[in-house]
Amino acid sequence: MLELSILFPSILNGLTTGAVYALIALGLTLIYGVLHIINFAHGAVLMIALYGVFFLNAKLGLDPYAALPVMVPGMFALGYALQRFVIGRASHGKDENILLATLGLTLVLENFALYAWRSDTRTIETPYTFSTVDVAGAMISTPKVVAFFGALAATAILLAFIARSDLGRAIRAVARERQGAKLVGIDVEHVFAMSFGIGLACLGAAACFLLPAYYVNPQVGNGFVLIAFTIVVLGGMGSFAGALLGGFIIGVVESVGGLWLGESLGQIGIFVIFIAILLFRPQGIFGART
Amino acid sequence: MKTLYAILVLCGAVALLPAFVSSGVVLNLVIMTLYATLLGQAWNILAGFGGQYSFGHAAFFGTGAYASAALQVHFGVNAWLCLPFAIVCGAAVGALVGALSFRYGLRGSYFALVTLAFAEVFRILANSVKFTGGGVGLLVPLKSSALDFQFQGKAGFLYVILALTLAGFLLSWWLKHSRYGAWLTAVRDNEDSAAALGVDVFRVKLQAIVISAGLTAAGGAFYVQYFQYIDPHLAYGPAVSVEALLGPIVGGLGTVFGPLLGAAALKLLGELTRNLMGDAPGVSLMIYGAVLIAMVTFLPRGIGGLFQRLAAKAP
């Protein structure tokens, strides 16, 4: 058995990563819940957001957390435009087409990054990069603690927005019953694009919280795509509470699995969970079987 | 019958090519086009005819490649004998993935994601296990004789890949004209009504993925002989899965000549962009991605579908 003194910090680290994973997965599950499409380009868009935070820091000296008011609206606008002008037009009413179009989008974004910014892995230096916080005897790096609370706060804002605002009500109406929403006068296409925008805005926020303790390169999104999907199917497609819990579970599994099996083999746990959940409980923890 | 003659004439013409062309560059281009055609044909059998979109054909490709390479490196088996073994291994992986996903009724996007996850699991395993050489990969020993499936010039490789592509053509043609092919397309068009009419949906889909995986694995074994090297990223990385699906989508899904049409068009486009924009990393894949979006949006039936539409309009 592992020593508790190693296991405890590892679990805490997993929880901090898990909070960011949850925020990423929330964006994905919102898009799925409303549009019933799988956004395969979610990881590639996160990569673009990470580059955005990186360049804001490198060129303008903007602190990654101060970049939030730039990145969140920026990613929202990108998402709105993508759904309105690219993805929405490709569907022709078939799920497979959306999957293929977002795969194409992934190829474009990833290889554009490779072409424009080369394959170098980049990190940023902040005054707090190497500082740590003492949590009940475990030393956790400050950016990770900030990421944990930041991601939770962003999640709370998103949930409150969906629950309280008029747009949130419209989003829930479209998610529940598309035809009915149309009949009561909701502009469904607009709600689709808004939901896609909000889904990507989550990525903008996640990128700001992630980068101080992470890195960016053109392939960085790949790892996140399957992790985000795993969380979403684990929690039940379209379920917010499920995405939140799923994020924490996957964060801890990854962290502890890495401790047990080593960095490269540790990842396998996530994929095995993904395949097993899809096969045996596709409705997830919170989802109802349809 | 007309299609069958067209296939034979086409393959005959390509077979005569080495007699007239000695340029290694041209022959290499033809070989790579046929190789992309083969992967496309394999993917097309499952997705174009069967409606099951896989995002993880690399799982079958890599297994074929590693089965052949490992047998040669670790046991010194003759490479020709490795080819059927590779096909069997790939088909077995196909049967495993298919049995699991189809038994539990995974459809559409879920099937695509689960195949991708399988490919990733294999990639991580190949990266971590000694048998596959870990991250370093496997280098096939140089023998340079036709008896060892390593030819001096390009012509030998051209004949091998041409034979495999011909097999792919004949399989696609058979699907267009056989009872099994009719079942498979019925499952694609409406699974529930196919089942109601007495089609054994699970079995039909399973057979399709096994055939598709076997053909993909043959492509993997060919790749290993042609480049004499394989590593986890080449074998199980997403690039192969993308290459397999791009050709049929560009050329025309569920058609006999779609994969060839798509592969040729993409190769042409790739060469064109290389001449225009240089060999900068990422450019060709960036354009492939844009092509994929454009095809899905504007030409969902591919170039082949466009030709058909134009032919129908012409008096």
Architecture blueprint of SSEs:
The complex is a heterodimer of chains A (290) and B (315).
Chain A: H1 4-35, H2 42-60, H3 68-90, H4 95-117, E1 132-135, E2 138-141, H5 142-164, H6 166-176, H7 178-183, H8 188-210, H9 220-235, H10 240-261, H11 263-266, H12 268-280
Antiparallel strand pairs in A: 1-2
Helix pairs in contact in A: 1-5, 1-8, 1-9, 1-10, 2-4, 2-8, 2-9, 3-4, 3-8, 5-6, 5-8, 6-8, 9-10, 9-12
Chain B: H1 2-20, H2 24-49, H3 58-75, H4 79-103, H5 108-128, E1 138-139, H6 154-177, H7 179-189, H8 191-196, H9 201-227, E2 229-230, H10 232-236, H11 238-251, H12 258-277, H13 283-298, H14 302-313
Antiparallel strand pairs in B: 1-2
Describe this structure in words.
The complex is a heterodimer of chains A (290) and B (315). Chain A is mostly helical and 290 residues long. Chain A has a single domain, classed as ABC transporter involved in vitamin B12 uptake, BtuC. In chain A, 74% of the residues lie in helices and 3% in strands. Chain A contains 12 helices and 2 strands; from the N terminus they run ααααββαααααααα. Chain A has a two-stranded antiparallel ribbon. In chain A, helix 1 packs antiparallel against helix 10 and helix 2 crosses helix 8. Chain B has 315 residues and is an all-alpha fold. Chain B has a domain of 210 residues. Chain B is built from 14 helices and 2 strands; from the N terminus they run H-H-H-H-H-E-H-H-H-H-E-H-H-H-H-H. In chain B, helix 2 packs parallel to helix 6, helix 3 packs parallel to helix 5 and helix 11 packs across helix 12. At the A-B interface, helix 3, helix 4, helix 9 and helix 12 of A face helix 5, helix 11 and helix 13 of B.
